[in-house]
Amino acid sequence: MLQPALPSAETLKALETVPNMYLILSPDLYILTASNTYLAAIKTSREKIVGKHIFEAFPDNPNLPDADGMQNINASLQKVLQTKKPHFMQIQRYDVPDENNPGQFIQRYWDPSHTPVLDEAGEIQYIIQLANDVTEKVLTKEALAESSGQLHRLNDQLDDANREIVSANQELNRTVDALKFSNQNLEAQVGDRTAELASTIEELAASNEELAATNEELLAIQEDLYNLNTNLYESEQRFRSLIEYAPLPILVLKGQDMVFEMVNEAMLQVLGKSTSIIGEPLFKALPELKGQPVIDNLYHVYETGEPFSTDAVQVTLERNGKDEICYFNLNYRALYEGGTITGILQAAVEVTGQVRAHQAIVESEERFRTMAESSHVLIATSDETSNATYFNKAWIDMTGRPAKYMLEYGWADLIHPEDKEHVLNIYLSAFNEKRPFTSEFRILSATEDYRWLLSKGSPRFHPNGTFAGYTGSSIDVTEQKLDEQRKNDFIGIVSHELKTPVTTIYAYLQVLQGKLRKTQDAFILTALDKSVTQVKKMTTIINGFLNVSRLESGKIYIDKQRFDMAGLVKETETETATMISSHQIIFAPVEPTFVIADRDKIGQVINNFISNAVKYSAPGSTINIACISFDGQTQVSVKDEGMGISQKDIQQLFTRYYRVEGTHTQTISGFGIGLYLCSEIIHRHGGKIWVESEVGKGSAFYFSLPLADKGLV
Ligand code: ADP
Predict the structure, then answer these.
(1) Whose Cα sits closest to atom 13 in ligand 1?
(2) What is the pTM of this model?
(3) Distance (Å, rounded) from C-alpha 673 to C-alpha 548?
(4) Torsion of CA 491, 496, 498, 499, to 10 degrees
(5) Of the candidates 560, 528, 556, 529, which has an alpha carbon nearest to the alpha carbon of residue 543?
(6) Phi–psi pair at 61, nearest 5 degrees
(7) What is the pLDDT of residues 374-418, one digit of tens each?
(8) Residue 196: HSE in the Cβ half-sphere, 13 Å Cα cutoff
(9) Ligand 1 center to residue 111 CA distance, Å?
């Protein structure tokens, strides 16, 4: 399965400055980046969270036993990963670590949404988590709920008080009845109870006292009732002013006609209306809403009491004297009086910033694709596992294969069989070290012929430094290649044609030297010596060009045999002893090491190293030649105390016709083909060639080859 590429570093950089609160997550939920606004709001820095798993960076508040933010966010993300569709969440409590008090958390509420960004293949490339800090709004809402709870409690208290008044009244009635009864008894028995008058008067006095006490109680209850009414009024006032000054747009509709009972200033702005709509039915104030789906939802809230929300509703508002498109999430809640629904409270949360940020991200991706699609350069991307994730139109045009084919099979199968192994080796070793690479190869084109591509690959990294994959750009260099071919052919023909006359001149000069050995004419002898030296130089140059030309046309043959490298080095020692007297040349250590290789060509490499060491170091200085073996390899080195080579030049040294620019090298003859031939010979043996050097101190050239009998050494 192909993994989509993560967004480019530039895209992430650009997004970080968008003034909104969001995180960018990889499909495996690692934080790729966060907006500056987000970092400022939660008081943290990008380095602290980028590269971490979202729940490592933002764990649940451990002091909150029933914290479920992590679980809910994860459920939403899993849904997005499953459906590849945006998911908008209810408001969540998700506390953030308090940077100033380690181990402590700050209470926070968010209205998160998760939006996947898909690549051309429809795979999730990354997820945008937009989250608005709605803590204040939630706390305001809670205060509202608290206030209305208080209202309910007051009502309950009022009921209790009423019940108490009723029972007090009943008691009062009973007392009055008892009094009446006493009076009747008094009248009937006044005659014969004269004697008991005193005691009856006492009883009457007691009844009167009771009556007075009951009256006092009644007064106290009345006072309580008055206080309750006052509280009720104040609570209602508080509720109204909360709505009036709330920063988020709120309105209250009352009754089946949905009359505007309260509309705060923020909501009037959203609706584009004045306070004159208060008291008007909804359809009179906003006739355009008739028949709209939102109205069905309002009725549903009325009938069932179930809350209802609708997201990212587009509204055009006049801001700073201009019309501006804004987006709101709308929430509806039923309002109750005595257990029945009597109205609806609607609150709106502005999400313009989030919607715009999302649009900006989509637009930035779109811009990259438009640029890449309209370019003549072949552009492709791969992910961190080296899977191809994108090929632009130029690639599709070049190969004649549809994008789907290219993404599934890549480009490797289209490479010319002769170039394939070489190119893949370059690519894989660059990939392992995550460094840039350049290669040239032939690719099967739409017209079924091979075209030469010059390809450059650059590694991409996430802002946190982790490897994201490669971006490759290639251009068609077939015409240049053909020119080069023609040039090589020309050099080959000319060198070949020159070889016979130069060999003939050399032979005649040698005959002349033999014949004139005894002449007394010093000029003739010197002239002959100089001519022989120059013709030898010419032969070396012509041979060099012939070798290059043979190499280019694949006509160089490696004739392998088993031999001891120490023997070859010793032979070279004998030759150099007779030819070079300008330098002190030391051959040590020289260990016996058997290899299977082309003895003559390896000899050429050693001679080339030595003649360069002589050319590029001062007469009288020391040159050290060594041949050792370790790790199953033989290693030959030639060290000098010469001018050295800068790091910049070292990288190019083994390429054809490359010579270091400088005053020293200008005076020393050469064509820059010696090291190129050496490197081709060593690479064709499966060996390695390299140089270590410091300017002004000297250079050491090395090559290594696999040993013939690895187990023996
Ligand atoms: P040539 O010597 O004919 O120019 P080579 O391919 O042998 O070509 O070498 C390429 C270049 O590398 C040289 O021009 C020289 O600048 C540099 N070079 C090679 N060997 C040495 C050395 N031992 N010390 C310093 N520079 C060197």
Answers:
(1) 659
(2) 0.44
(3) 8
(4) 130
(5) 556
(6) -70, 115
(7) 999 999 999 999 899 999 999 999 999 999 999 998 888 999 999
(8) 11
(9) 68
